[in-house]
Design goal:
Elements: H1 5-16, E1 54-62, H2 68-71, E2 76-81, E3 84-88, H3 93-98, E4 99-104, E5 107-108, E6 110-113, E7 116-119, E8 121-123, E9 130-138, E10 141-158, E11 185-194, H4 204-207, E12 213-219, E13 222-228, E14 237-244, E15 247-250, E16 252-255, E17 264-268, E18 276-284, E19 287-297, E20 313-322, E21 339-344, E22 349-355, E23 361-366, E24 370-379, E25 382-391, E26 397-408, E27 411-423, H5 439-447, H6 465-475, H7 494-506, H8 525-538, H9 559-571, H10 589-604
Antiparallel strand pairs: 1-2, 1-10, 2-3, 3-8, 4-5, 4-9, 6-7, 9-10, 11-12, 11-19, 12-13, 13-17, 14-15, 14-18, 16-17, 18-19, 20-21, 20-27, 21-22, 22-25, 23-26, 24-25, 26-27
Helix pairs in contact: 5-10, 6-7, 8-9
C-alpha cells in the first residue's frame, strides 16, 4: 500500500497525543478470543483474570512511512494466557481513540475491558515477526497503515506492576528577579508551563506540545505571549483560552489554524512577574478534553527597559503652502516660522507654531485641530507669539486660516489667508508609527534622508551594530578610507561598508577586536552611548563639568561609559529608566530614533 504525506501527518498526530493524556491501563487478562488458531472464548467486559506472568519484551515496529516506530516505543508488556503470548504496546488513551480498527489478518486486536481500551498483539512461541494493519481516523486523514512487529525474546524480563511517578525538575513558579517596565515592542523569548496543582514548572503535558520559542508583545504596559504548537501537535489543539478575571476568554489567532501549521495564538499575560492561568482544548479522533496549565516568560531574559516618560520635544520642519497649491506661501519663514516643536501626548501630538512677527496676527485657526495661544513675548522689537495645535495625526496636511493686519509706515493691509500646513516636509511613509511617542523623531530623521521609505518602520525590532552605524553615517559628511581591518563585513552592501569604514577611521566606532566588527550583533545601550559621545567629542563638544552620573547600573570600572552616560543624560540624549541605563539591553529602532535625533539636534547647535 502506497503511503502519502497525509498518512505521515496522521501518524504524527496519532502518537503525539501520548504525552498529553494519561497512558492506558495495562491489560491484565480477560476471557480470550480465538487468535492465530488458539481456542479462546469471546471477549467480555468482566474483570480480567490473573496473569501467569508480568514481563516486558523489546520489539521493533516498522511500516512503509517509518513513522510508527518513532512514537510507539519499545519495550511492551508481554502477557501469557493459556500458553498464548501477547504484546501490549503502551499507547495513550487519546491515540487509541484515533485507531478505529486494528487487525492481524482478519482477527481484531483491539480489546475493551470495562472502560479500558487496548491493543493486544498475539505472537507465537517462536516470536516470529507479526504483520498487521491499523486503520486511523485523525484530523485531516482517514486510512490504513500496514505494520510489522518483530519481538526479541532475549530481552524478556520481569517488571513491577507499578512504577514510581516521575516528576519533572522543579522550577520556581515565577521569575525570582522581577522584570521592570519593558519598552513597547516584540521580543523573541522562552517560557515555561507550570502544573496548576503542584506549581512545578517544566510541565511536560504542555511543554512537549508547544514550540520552545515564543514572541513577547509589549503594548502600552500590557503584555501578550504569542505561542504555537509543535508540528506534530498542531492538528490536535483546537483552542487556547486564558483566565481573565473570573472567566476564560478565547486566545486570539495571529496566524495559521488547527489545520494549517503553525497555528500562532496570542495569550494576554497577567504580568511578566506572575503566572497566567490558561487551558488548551485537545481534539483527536474521539478524544475531546481540556487541559489546565499556567504559563510565564522565563526569568533573566535580556529585554529592553522602558525609557523615562519625560516629555520628548522634537523639532520638525514646517511648510506653509498657498491654498490649494504646492507653492510656498509668502508667510513661510516670515510670518510663520519654518520649524515647529512637537511633543507626543496620550491622544496625539502638541505642535508649537511660532509667529515671529506676531504683532500683525489677529487670529489663527486650523481645521481638525484645537488651537490655543501658548506665549507672547517681545523680541527685538517684534511680538513673538506661539500657538499650540493639538492634533491626532502628524502625517496630515492641515488647512489653516491666518488673519493678518500689517501696518508698516504708510503701508497697510488687512487680509485673511487660507493656507496649508505640513509638518516634517514629507508624508509619513511608515504604517506602524502613528501612535508612537517618538513619531516626531522618526519623521524628522526620514525627512533628512536618514531613514528610507518603507511600508513599515518596525519600531520594536532591535537594532544591529551595522544598522546603527549606517544611520550615523547618513547624518554626517565623512571621508571613506579605501581599506579596513575588519574581515567580517565584506558581505554587507556598499553603503553599510562605507559607513563602517568611515566611522571606524574617524574614531567613532570600534570592533570587538581588530579584525571583527560583528555587524549583525544587536547593539547595546552601552555601545550606543559610547558611539554617540565619541561623535560629539569629534565634532567639538566640550563636556559639562557639572554633569553627574544619574544611573545606578553603570559599571564603575568602565570609565568611558561613565563619562558618556553622564554627559548624554545631561544633554537629554539618553534618559534611561527608573534611574538605570540598562547598559547591556538591546536598542530598539524606536529608541534608536529618539537617541539619534536628540544627538543630531545637539550637534546642530555646536
Amino acid at each position: 500500500m502506497t503511503k502519502n504525506r497525509n498518512t505521515k501527518v496522521a501518524l504524527v498526530a496519532l502518537m503525539a497525543v501520548s504525552a498529553i493524556t494519561p497512558a492506558a491501563v495495562s491489560a491484565n487478562a480477560g476471557e480470550t478470543q480465538n487468535v492465530n488458531g488458539t481456542d479462546a472464548t469471546t471477549k467480555n467486559t468482566a474483570a480480567p483474570a490473573t496473569e501467569t506472568a508480568v514481563r516486558t519484551i523489546d520489539f521493533t515496529l516498522t511500516d512503509e512511512t517509518g513513522m510508527l516506530s518513532r512514537y510507539v516505543k519499545s519495550p511492551g508488556k508481554l502477557i501469557e494466557r493459556e500458553g498464548q503470548y501477547y504484546i501490549q504496546p503502551e499507547i495513550s488513551e487519546a491515540a487509541l481513540a484515533m485507531i478505529t480498527d486494528a487487525k492481524i489478518g482478519d482477527t481484531p486486536i483491539i480489546h475493551t475491558y470495562g472502560d479500558v481500551k487496548m491493543v493486544l498483539i498475539p505472537v507465537g512461541k517462536d516470536f516470529a515477526p507479526v504483520k498487521g494493519a491499523l486503520t486511523l481516523q485523525s484530523p485531516g486523514y482517514k486510512g490504513t497503515v500496514d505494520f510489522t512487529l518483530t519481538a526479541d525474546p532475549a530481552t524478556i524480563k520481569e517488571v513491577k506492576d507499578e512504577k514510581p511517578e516521575e516528576k519533572p525538575e522543579e522550577k520556581p513558579t515565577k521569575p525570582s528577579t522581577p522584570y521592570g517596565d519593558i519598552a513597547d515592542g516584540k521580543y523573541e523569548v522562552t517560557f515555561d508551563a507550570y502544573n496548576p496543582k503542584t506549581g512545578e514548572g517544566n510541565y511536560a503535558a504542555i511543554t512537549n506540545h508547544l514550540n520552545e520559542k515564543a514572541v513577547l508583545v509589549v503594548e502600552k504596559g500590557k503584555y501578550f505571549l504569542e505561542v504555537s504548537a509543535t508540528e506534530k501537535s498542531n492538528g490536535m489543539i483546537a483552542e487556547y483560552q486564558v483566565l481573565a478575571g473570573d472567566k476564560y476568554v478565547k486566545a486570539e489567532t495571529v496566524s495559521g489554524s488547527q489545520a494549517k501549521y503553525p497555528h500562532v495564538v496570542r495569550l494576554p499575560l497577567t504580568s511578566l512577574n506572575d503566572l497566567t492561568t490558561a487551558k488548551l482544548h485537545v481534539v483527536a479522533g474521539t478524544h475531546d478534553a481540556w487541559y489546565d496549565f499556567q504559563i510565564a516568560v522565563d526569568k533573566g531574559l535580556d529585554l529592553p527597559k522602558k525609557e523615562e516618560s519625560a516629555d520628548e520635544t522634537v523639532t520638525l520642519p514646517a511648510y506653509v503652502y498657498q491654498d490649494g497649491l504646492q507653492d510656498l506661501s509668502i508667510m513661510h519663514g516670515k510670518y510663520l516660522a519654518d520649524k515647529v516643536k512637537v511633543t507626543a501626548t496620550e491622544t496625539g501630538y502638541n505642535v508649537d507654531v511660532t509667529f515671529p512677527e506676531g504683532q500683525h496676527l489677529n487670529g489663527f485657526t486650523v481645521e481638525g485641530a484645537t488651537v490655543a495661544k501658548k506665549s507672547e513675548n517681545k523680541v527685538d522689537g517684534n511680538t513673538v507669539k506661539v500657538y499650540t495645535l493639538s492634533v491626532d495625526d502628524l502625517s496630515k496636511i492641515y488647512t489653516a486660516t491666518v488673519d493678518l493686519s500689517v501696518r508698516v509706515g504708510d503701508f497697510s493691509y488687512d487680509e485673511k489667508y487660507n493656507i496649508q500646513l505640513q509638518f516634517g516636509g514629507m508624508k509619513n511613509p511608515f504604517g506602524d508609527i502613528q501612535k508612537l511617542a517618538n513619531y516626531g523623531a522618526i519623521v524628522s530623521l526620514y525627512s533628512q534622508g536618514i531613514f528610507k521609505e518603507s511600508e513599515k518602520f518596525n519600531p520594536y525590532t532591535t537594532t544591529t551594530r551595522y544598522q546603527f552605524s549606517l544611520m550615523l553615517f547618513r547624518a554626517l559628511d565623512l571621508e571613506v578610507p579605501e581599506t579596513t581591518g575588519f574581515k567580517d563585513i565584506t558581505t554587507l552592501d556598499a553603503e553599510a561598508l562605507s559607513a563602517i569604514k568611515a566611522l571606524n577611521s574617524y574614531g567613532v566606532i570600534n570592533g570587538v577586536n581588530k579584525e571583527t566588527f560583528a555587524p549583525n550583533n544587536k547593539i547595546t545601550r552601552a555601545q550606543t552611548a559610547k558611539m554617540i559621545y565619541r561623535l560629539l567629542e569629534k565634532e567639538g563638544y566640550k563636556p559639562a563639568a557639572d554633569a553627574k552620573m544619574p544611573f545606578s547600573d553603570v559599571p564603575a570600572n568602565d570609565q568611558e561609559l561613565n563619562k558618556a552616560a553622564a554627559q548624554l543624560h545631561a544633554l537629554g540624549i539618553m534618559t534611561g529608566s527608573a534611574g538605570k541605563l540598562n547598559p547591556g539591553a538591546p536598542l530598539t529602532r524606536d529608541q534608536m530614533a529618539k537617541v539619534l535625533n536628540n544627538a543630531l539636534e545637539v550637534l546642530g547647535n555646536l
